[in-house]
Amino acid sequence: MQLEVLKNRIIWLKFFHGYVDRSFSVEIDRLCILGIYLSIFFLFCRMKNSLLLILFLFSFATIHGQSPAQKLIDNSIQYHDPDNKWDSWNPDLSFTVLYPGKPDGKRSVRFDNKKEEFNFVANYKEGKLVYSVKQGQAKATWNDSETIPESAAKQYRISTDRALMYRNYYVYLYGMPMKLNDPGTQIEPSVELVDFYGKKYNKIRVTYDQSVGKDTWYFYFDPATNALQAYQFFKDESKNDGEYILFEGEIIKDGIKIPKDRKWYYNNDGKYLATDVLD
Fold first, then answer.
1. Could you tell me if residue 77 is inside a domain?
2. Which of 114, 142, 180, 202 has the smallest number of Cβ neighbours within 10 A?
3. What is the pLDDT of residues 117-135, one digit of tens each?
4. How far apart are CA 238 and CA 187, in angstroms?
C-alpha cells in the first residue's frame, strides 16, 4: 500500500514538473528528489521484502536518471518545437545551394512525418531529378520518367537506394534536435562548454547503435537559449575526417524553428564546401 502511494506521488510530481514554467524546474527537481528520498527512507524502515525495495529503487533511478545532456536536449526541443509539432510536421522547404566557383543549385524538400512521405527535387542543367519515398517505397524519376538515361544516372548517381539516403539525410538534419530522441541514439551524459569557431557553445557527443549509423556526432547549443546552432560529424574521429556545419539566422516553419542558412566545412582543413539558404 505504501509503495502504491509513493508511486502515485512520483507520477504526480513528474506530471506537474512537465507543465510548470521552466524557470521553476530546478527548484521543483530539488523538492521532488528530497521528498522522494525521504519517502524511500521511511519505506526502507518498514519494508521487509528486500527484493521489492531493490525493484523500487531501480524504478526510481530510471525516472530520475536524466543526464545533463538529455536535459539540454529536452530544453532545446522546447525551444525549437514548443508545441510538439514534429510528429505531424509536413514542411515544404525550398532552398538554394551556394557552391564556391560553381553555379548555384535549386532544391526543394517536402516531407510528411505522419504519412511517412518524402519528396526531393533538384533542377540541373540537363534535367529534373525527383526522389520520392512513400511508407518505405522509394522511386527516382528523371524529367518525370522512371527510365533514367545512363549518362544522368552515372553523373548524378541516381538510384532508389539514394532516394532513401536523401530521405534519411534531410529528415535527420531538419529534424534536429527532435531526432536525438530516436531509438538507437547513444547520448553521452556530459555537457561541455567549449569555444567553437569563435563562439561559446554547450557541446554534447552522440553515437548510434550499429544498426542505425556509424558516425560520431557533436551538437552545439547556445548557452543562453538552448538553441541548436551547429553540428559536426566524423566517419573516423581519429582521422579528423567529416564536416562541421554552422548556422546563421533562423526561421519558423509550421511552428518549428529551423536554421535559415547552413554553412558546410571540412573538419581536417576548414575548407568551405557550400551554403544552403532557405527561401
1. no
2. 114
3. 999 999 999 999 999 999 8
4. 19
